[in-house]
Amino acid sequence: MNGLQNDLLLKALSGSPVPRPPVWMMRQAGRFLPDYIKLRDKYSFFERCQTPELATEITVMPVDQVGVDAAIIFSDILVVPQAMGMEVQLVEKLGPLLPQPIKSAADLNRIHIPDVKDSLHYVMDALRLTKQTLAGRVPLIGFAGAPWTLLCYMVQGKGSKTFDEAKAFCYTQPEVAHELLDRITETTIAYLKAQVEAGADVVQIFDSWGGLLSPDDFENFSLRYIRRIVAALQGVAPVIVFAKGAWFALEEMAATGAQGLGLDWCIKPGLARQFAGPDVTLQGNFDPAQLMKPIPEIQKSVKAMIDAFGPQRYIANLGHGILPNIPVDHAKAFIEAVKNYA
């Protein structure tokens, strides 16, 4: 027994029959919720991440306020580069800034594989407190960034639409790039295992920039490292891999042994199932901008989406993170439409 009152997410990931698909939303902890905005105006980003009581409050908000079937811990993928020794600033409305990016082999001397239970103890403390606060109502999801996506920020030093400097780094200094990816991978394995130990029921790997790579480069600089992480988590916890834009590798991602694959809105459900095969759970893929539609239209679109995926081996979600300007009642309508699916 998993001791959960609502275990739809775990059942869907294991392939067990469910009365309806489970539903949650990426970036549901924060952004669009007025109560989160009050905390954002009062505390800096890292204060929110590093104070377990605040992280717990933010994590549980969408469970209480919009009725999702799972909580995802409030944190950020860039806590890993920070734990590895890099300075990371998160500037509201501007995004991440890493003032001393990695440009050469010499720069690798500045980073290390940390003891994650020490350097990221605040994430584990938040997971433990959240688990206690949820009291078995819904599963708790932990997460980390994929090594390629973290390399993008660590080399580029800031957000980018193309991450051309990160790609150039991989092409001109492949040995250094693979050494960096290797260290990120080792750190991420330890970090996700520690999250499960602290209470995460499921973990998700976010490869936000996987779709910037060609299929061969995706295999070389991203998937080979994701494969290692998924293998290390086998028997520890179910893993969902979300590589935005990398639909071309769904077959290879399914072969990693991950229990779930996240999808963005740029692939048809039937095609995704054809590529991924029958033995993995698909998650997605509602365009977050569609939550601006009138509520009756949201309800219709959600029904069409579930009809296309089928209610089994499926988790209803967005194709990327919820946008900050989405009205709460529209987010709630999305959740309710899944819950009312027949």
SSE inventory with pairings:
Blueprint lengths: L7 H7 L19 H9 L2 H6 L1 H14 L5 E2 L6 H5 L5 E3 L3 E3 L18 H4 L1 H14 L5 E6 L1 H10 L7 H9 L1 H24 L4 E6 L7 H19 L5 E5 L6 H5 L5 E3 L6 H8 L4 E6 L8 H15 L4 E5 L9 H12 L3
Parallel strand pairs: 1-4, 4-5, 5-6, 6-7, 7-8, 8-9
Antiparallel strand pairs: 2-3
Written overview of the protein:
By secondary structure, the protein is an alpha/beta fold. It is built from 15 helices and 9 strands. Strands 1-4-5-6-7-8-9 form a 7-stranded parallel β-sheet, with helices on both faces. A two-stranded antiparallel ribbon has the order 2-3. Helix 13 links the parallel strand 7 (260-262) and strand 8 (281-286). Helix 8 (147-156) crosses helix 10 (174-197), helix 10 runs parallel beside helix 11 and helix 14 (295-309) runs parallel beside helix 15 (328-339). This is Uroporphyrinogen decarboxylase. Belongs to the uroporphyrinogen decarboxylase family. Catalyzes the decarboxylation of four acetate groups of uroporphyrinogen-III to yield coproporphyrinogen-III.
Question: Main attributes?
Answer:
11% strand, 47% helix, globular, two-stranded antiparallel sheet, alpha/beta, 7-stranded parallel sheet, porphyrin biosynthesis, 342 residues, single chain
Q: What's this model, at a glance?
A:
It contains 15 helices and nine strands. It has 342 residues and is of the alpha/beta class. α14 links the parallel β8 and β9.
